[in-house]
Structures are given as C-alpha cells and as structure tokens.
Design brief:
InterPro entries: AB_hydrolase_1, AB_hydrolase_fold, Hydrolase_4, MAG_DAG_Lipase. This is Serine aminopeptidase S33 domain-containing protein. It comes from Paramoeba aestuarina. This protein has about 375 residues and is an alpha/beta fold. The protein has a single domain, classed as Rossmann fold, CATH 3.40.50.1820. The protein is built from 9 helices and 8 strands. The protein has an 8-stranded mixed sheet with strand order 1-2-4-3-5-6-7-8, with helices on both faces. A hairpin with a 5-residue loop joins strand 1 and strand 2. The two termini are about 25 Å apart.
Amino acid sequence: MNYCIHRIYAMNRSIFLAVSAGAAYFGYRALVDYTEEESHANTCCVALPSQIDEGYRLNRTGLFLYTREWAPKEEHLYPSLSSSPSSPSSSSSSPEFTPSAPELTCVTMTTPPRKAKGVVFIVHGMAEHCNRYSHVAALFNALGFYVHSLDNQGFGRSQGDRAYARSFNDFIDDYYDFVNETMLKYEENTPMFLVGHSMGGLIGYQVAARQPERWAGVIFSGFCYKLPPHVAPPHLKFVAAGLSSWLPKGSLPVSTLNLDEICSDPSVVQHARDDQWYEKGPVSFRLASELFTTIDNLPNVTPSAKFPVLFMHGKDDVICLPEGSEFLYSSHPHEDREIHIFDKMFHEIFNEFEKDQVMTIMSKWVLARTPK
C-alpha cells in the first residue's frame, strides 16, 4: 500500500512539474511576443510587459554599478532600499557612461518584506551586460519569480575601466554584496536561485560557495573553466601574468572575443556587434591574468560548493569547452547535480535556435526545487 501511494505521489508530482513548466514557457513566449519569423532577430533585445526597475548601487571600491530588476507583471515594484541616481538612457551615444554621485538622503523604509515564490539572480559573462538576459528574466517572471542582475564593473552601464578589474575578487564581492542587499527586500527563507553564464558562472560559483546553504539551486551555462588554445594561448597567459603589475590596463589584440563564435544564429552575432553596451575591445592584462588565476584556483573552492547544481553547455562551444562543465559536474560535492550537453549549440545556449529545449529543462529543474 505504501509503495502504491509513493508511486502515485511521484507520478502526480512529475505531471505537476511538466504542466507548470509548459504553462510558464507558453507565458514566456507570450511575454517576449515574437513570431517564428522574428524570434531569432529579437532574442537578445525584446520589449517585455514585465515591470522593470533599474538604478545604481555603490560598491566597496566606490564604483556605481548598474542594477536591474524584472518583476512578475501582476506584482507591485517596491522602492529600492538605497537611494540611487537616475539610470542612463539606452540611446546614450557613449557606452562608457559614468553616473554622477547621488545626493545622500536618509530614507525611512516602512514597506513590508516582499512575499515571493522565489528570487533569481543572473550573472552575465565577459564583454556583455545584464540586459541581454531579458528573455531569460521573462521566463522566470512567467514562473512567478522576481529576477535581479547587475552589470559587472568595467562592463555595460557600470562604472570602471573597460574590461578591467583590479582583482577577480572584486566581481565576486560586488555580486555577494548585491545578493545580500537585495534579499533584505524579501521575506526570510525565500528560495534563491542563481544563473551564471561563462565568466558569470565563475563569479556565481564562488558567490554561492560562500553561503551554499542559502541557495535552492545554481545553474551554469557555458561555464568558463576549460579554455581552448585559441582563446587562451600559452603566450597570452605568460604575457598577461608578466605585465599584470607593470601594465595592468594594457592589452593585446588577440585577447578580443571573436563574436562569430558566441552563437550559431547570425542574427544574434549581428545584434552583439550593433550593441553599444557590448564590450568589443580587448581584455586588459590584469583581468586576463586574474581570470586565468581564478580558473586555476577553482578546485580549491569546490569542497565548499555544496549546493544543488545544473550544468548546461553547448557541445560545439569553442569559447569555453564543454569538458570543463563535465569535469566540474563529476567533482561537484553535492548529491543533487545534473548536466546537459546540447548538440549543435555554441557558447550562448540561451540564444541558440533550439533555446526552447534549454529553457524547458531549466524551468522544470527550478520548479522541482521550489516549495509549492
């Protein structure tokens, strides 16, 4: 009898997850409002009816970082906990917009904590910015989640020298502080998820490892761990390490990302080329050196990464090789781990022609780890 009851429960739960994920995905498709003919052209830049809030937060080193929130349409957007300056216009001619410091005012907050199904944090990759994930945020909004992200320092609308960081830990500290500050808006024990792409995975992995018990689940796409020789040639690693202290903001042209390799969809590649906030210059010696050092040190962080994890990677990714995700999956210290390698997909699996498959797997995985 107990066995039968258990089987019925398991079957009903599977049906619930499948139906919920399907409904959420149809909601997501309605949110981004694209037809089959328009879908590939609008992947990275879509007009969403989700409620959006944007602003800036001051980090530990005095830089203003651009932040963005996507809320489920029916929910009310509460004011931020900290005062922030007006956001720049998306039509600004300069991608190196530097916000002026806001006037500091004392604000008494009486807004009660938000009651939310869950909160998702998205960490973008090298050269890009958080608004390229509006369609991913729309999916989570359709599931009933709030979504938060920021532009890493030196990228997008955030302050900082372009493609430069004094230390890779600055990225990690920025996001760790951002998560803790943001979660003050929500009720205690609200489920938290993180989605990290490429270098954003390298950042998010270490953010989550600092407090692994807080995370209901962490998702990685195209994890930046195993780099092919044409992306990280031995001479570049040697030069970057040698000049990191002497010429930290200098760079070599070979350290420029080849946009043709980010996605198999030419329209996505062209959109990145036309995107004024997408960093197209070379990576600085300091950031390159810090990136290589952080990758080499990641096995030392792994024992602390005791959180549920989903690795997803394109099989034809030549920017960050799928073998890196496979290695991290095999060595992950938490028993709740899953991996998917997608055939005929490049680096940006959320923007590929067959991205529906990726979105569906991610939806089911998140729902399975969210309390009803």
